[in-house]
Each structure stands twice: as structure tokens, then as C-alpha cells.
Amino acid sequence: MPEGDTVFRAVHRLRTALAGKTLSDSDFRIPRYATTDLSGARVESVRSVGKHLFIDLLRPSGIPVSIHSHLMMEGLWDVHTIGAKWRRPWHTARVVLRAGDIEAVGFDLGVLELLADPGPAVAHLGPDLLGDDWDAARAVENLAAAPDTPIGIALLDQRSLAGVGNVYRSELCFMRRVHPATPTAAVDLPPLVDLAHRLLTANRLRVTRVTTGATGRGRELWVYGRDRRPCRRCGTAVERGMLGEPPAERSIYVCPRCQTR
Predict the structure, then answer these.
(1) Suppose 224 and one of 91, 127, 170, 213 were both cysteines; which one would form an S-S bond, judging by CB atoms 3.0 to 4.6 Å apart?
(2) Closest C-alpha to 51, from 97, 110, 116, 135
(3) Which stretches of the chain score pLDDT less than 70?
(4) CA angle, corner 162, sides to 242 and 218, nearest 5?
(5) Mapping DSSP to helix (H, G, I), strand (E, B) and coil, where does residue 128 land?
């Protein structure tokens, strides 16, 4: 699933292409909005809140509306010149927005809706790791409120802090020498939260996510996706396991020596 930095990059591309422009055409390819026409609407802003993406518009009538999307597992926003070949099959497109010679296409979006008031859609979220109003103290407080929850599960709870996904979950725990199954009460939370903020900030505009500081191909991550390969710190084979209860069970990657239970 795309994480906070992935959504931030998508917002950056969309903002560069669309912000301040007027839509010449819109094409919603889901039944609920099949007849919706946003042509003539001005793009006021493009922004992310955690893993949620908003395109805020002002209709010619003066009525605001926001396109709210969530990439979920397979979603993608792409931007290109009209007439360019699409990166994914046409039938996976959920919405097409055009402004001048620019075309923005949302493929395989897990959530796509039009909202008059976008606030309630993200009211449940904790502090956004890449938001201008990032609040580390509140994120720590939110995590600490569930002391018996494994830290690897707590980090994915967007109500505590918004933006961490499965990759960062494994990388953060490794870098702090914490096993993901460790109860949150036993974890030194402020340094973990600070590290999460620094990592996502450093990667927010990178095409390839890097947590090790090494940008060479295959050297970018500490443990994620590296099961059975040697730990970059001690040489012990990295192990892949599962954490959580079905259907929310997700994979974790740990070094059994660096991250003892």
C-alpha cells in the first residue's frame, strides 16, 4: 500500500500540473459520478493528509467541491500531456481531469468521492507526518494510549499518526532495535516518532525510498523485503513473519539478533 511519502509525491506532481488552472474537461468513470461535469472549475489546491489526497476546486457558480481519493493497494495518479500513452490500461482509469494540454488520470483508486466538506473524511486521523501542522507530542500521546498493542500494529493505526505503512513499519522498528511485536508501553516512543518524521520528510520527493542512506540499487532499505538475506548490521539472516489478526494480518521483516523480543 502506498505510504505517506508516495501520496505526497503524487500531490506534488498534480499540484505542479493543475494548481491555479481551470478544468476544460472531467470524466468520472464510476457509476456514482458518471454524469458529473467539473469543466470550468478552478483548481484551488492539491494536498495530502496522511494517505488521503484532495483536489480542491471552485465551481463557476462559486460553490467549492473536493475530489477525495485514496490509493489503497494499487492506486496511482499519473500526469502527462494529452495524447501521451497511458501507463495503465484504459479500463483501470477511475477519473480523468484535463486542463489545457495536461491530463491527470487516477487509476485503480480505492476511494474516489466528491465532497462539499472534506474535513470529516480525515477527522479521525492522527497528526500528519508530512503536514505543516505536524505535532510529535500528540503522536506520542496517541501511541501511548494503547500500551498493550504491539508497536508494529500501533504504527499502522492512522488514528495515532498518519502516513506510516508496512515498509516504514519494518524499517523504523529495525532502526530503533525494537521487535514489531513489542508492546507499545515497552518502547521509547519519542525517538521512534521523531525518526518516522525524519524518514518520511527525507523521502517525500524521492522516486526511490531510502532508509539506509545508501542510494545504490538494492541497498536502499535495511530489512523490508530482504528475508533470508544477511542483516546489514550484524549479518544474521533477516526473517519474514506476520503480525496482526486476519484479515488485517500483514508481513513484518526483522533481524532476530538486532530485534530480540
Answers:
(1) 170
(2) 110
(3) 1
(4) 55
(5) strand
Residue range 64-113, pLDDT digits in tens = 999 999 999 899 999 999 999 999 999 999 999 999 999 999 999 999 99
Q: Is 205 helix (H, G, I), strand (E, B) or coil?
A: coil
Instruction: Output the nine-digit C-alpha cell for 243.
Output: 503480525
Cell of 252: 513484518
Domains and CATH numbers, the chain: 4-122 (3.20.190.10), 136-254 (1.10.8.50)
- The sheet carrying 76-81 orders its strands as 25-28, 93-99, 102-107, 76-81
Give every CB contact of residue 108 below 8 A, 6+ residues apart in sequence: 71, 72, 74, 75, 76, 88, 92, 94
- Taking the CA of residue 213 as centre, how many other CA atoms within 13 Å lie in the half-sphere pointing to its CB? 3
CB 158 within 8 A of CB 166: no
CA 178, chain centre distance (Å): 23
pTM for the structure as a whole: 0.93
* Residue in the structure block whose three cell numbers are 492539491: 46
Burial 181-207 (b: 16+ CB within 10 A, else e): bbebeebebeebbebbbebbeebbeee
pLDDT attached to residue 11: 97
Tallying the residues shown for the chain, one arrives at 261
Q: What is the residue whose three cell numbers read 542512506?
A: 213
Catalytic residue positions, numbered: 2-3, 51
* pLDDT at res. 249: 87
